[in-house]
Backbone:
């Protein structure tokens, strides 16, 4: 498919050919759901921890004798029935992460890119850089492409100055073409992609990828 490349001022410059194997696939809801949940699970800290009655500090003695008081039988003060006692079946530190097949991950990302391209949510603009790293310059650039809304900028590389300029914009996030995130990409209401990033995606996720498998494994 052909898409228009815009200047940083919003003017039409030229057209670019997007690989249908990357930007022309049908919507695959199942694999996208799988990829997003995989990313969210891998981000979970899993550090919640509670103490059971064996870990509570205190005496093992009964507060009063078993019989003769007319009161209910009672164990030590570490009982889960008492305030300050142990927790029953409480959470313990665990690892929520799990591996997702590489082919399924690639299919999910290509399906999301296709969804954005076919719904005209995707805008391709000429390569730019913010040498000063100032938020004002980046905000003025984004104003040419619509109102303030959840936006994802796909970069051609890890441009520190551009990321620095967007650090104070709460609705803006950055992704590199070779380190896409299904969650951010899918929920972005507007996707702005640099021209070189679009060309790199044609090769990186295309039908015949030129990226070495070892480097690709490191990116996933």
Residues:
């Amino acid at each position: 498919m052909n898409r228009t490349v815009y200047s940083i001022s919003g003017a039409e410059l030229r057209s670019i050919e997007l690989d249908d194997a990357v930007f022309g696939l049908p919507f695959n809801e199942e694999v996208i759901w799988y990829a997003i949940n995989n990313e969210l699970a891998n981000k979970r800290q899993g550090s919640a921890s509670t103490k059971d009655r064996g870990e509570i500090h205190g005496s093992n003695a009964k507060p009063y004798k078993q019989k003769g008081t007319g009161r209910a039988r009672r164990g030590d003060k570490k009982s889960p029935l008492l305030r300050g006692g142990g927790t029953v079946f409480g959470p313990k530190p665990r690892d929520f992460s799990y591996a997702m097949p590489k082919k399924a991950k690639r299919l999910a990302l290509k399906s999301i890119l296709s969804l954005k391209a076919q719904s005209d949510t995707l805008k391709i603009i000429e390569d730019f850089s913010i040498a000063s790293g100032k938020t004002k310059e980046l905000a003025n650039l984004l104003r040419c492409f619509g109102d303030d809304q959840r936006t994802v900028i796909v970069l051609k590389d890890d441009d520190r100055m551009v990321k620095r300029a967007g650090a104070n914009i709460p609705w803006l996030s950055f992704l590199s073409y070779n380190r896409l995130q299904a969650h951010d990409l899918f929920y972005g209401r507007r996707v702005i992609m640099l021209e070189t990033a679009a060309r790199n995606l044609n090769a990186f996720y295309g039908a015949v990828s030129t990226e070495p498998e070892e480097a690709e494994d490191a990116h996933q």
Observations:
- Helices lie at 20-23, 29-43, 102-118, 135-143, 160-165, 182-187, 195-204, 213-219.
- Residues 208-220 have pLDDT under 50 and may be disordered.
